[in-house]
Amino acid sequence: STPLQEAVARGFELELSRLGTPECYFESLAKELEAKRDYMEAFLLDVGMIPTVPEGGYFMMADWTPLESKVNLNAETDKYKDYKFTKWMTKNVKLQGIPPSAFYSEPNKSLGETFVRYCFIKKDENLQEAAKILKTWKEAQSKL
User: Fold this and answer.
1) 1, 80, 95, 112: which has the fewest Cβ within 10 Å?
2) pLDDT of residue 32
3) Is residue 3 included in any domain, yes or no?
4) How many CB atoms lie within 10 A of CB 63?
5) Where would I find the Aminotransferase class I/classII large domain in this sequence (predicted)?
6) CATH number at residue 99
7) Residue by residue, what is the 3-state secondary structure of the chain?
8) Is the CB of residue 110 less than 8 Å from the CB of residue 80?
């Protein structure tokens, strides 16, 4: 085995010996991510999106179509609505999402159009800033 393989194996052996303890990286990471995921779910719900809460991973998909009447996608020239929405949000609200249709084959891209993908393995202050950006935008929408 290579030195890198040996190092990875030793790291896994160490973490396996820590399973079930607070020192275990895998368990501490899962708890940290669960809190971040739940926080993101709450602020996406608050703005009116419908999040799909993952049981693992670092990303959350959210149905953005409840906001469709509050965004003007006419100026965006992309073929798929998720691209239009993420570009519009980036330009106008200053919050970047990922268009999930980017991960679909051409015949299936329309399956992802009603969703946006957000990453929640971020510093807490970055997630708080995202929540603030969306809250400010929501409040501005209610005044229109």
Assistant:
1) 1
2) 94
3) no
4) 15
5) 1-133
6) 3.90.1150.10
7) CCHHHHHHHHHHHHHHHHCCCCCCHHHHHHHHHHHHHHHHHHHHHHHCCEEECCCCCCEEEEECHHHHHHCCCCCCCCCCHHHHHHHHHHHHCCCCCECHHHHCCHHHHHHHCCEEEEECCCCHHHHHHHHHHHHHHHHHHHCC
8) yes
pTM of the model: 0.88
Q: In degrees to the nearest 10, what's the CA dihedral of 16, 21, 22, 27?
A: 50
**The amino acid at 17:** S
pLDDT interval class at 143 (50, 70, 90): confident
Q: Could you tell me the pLDDT band of residue 85, with boundaries at 50, 70 and 90?
A: very high
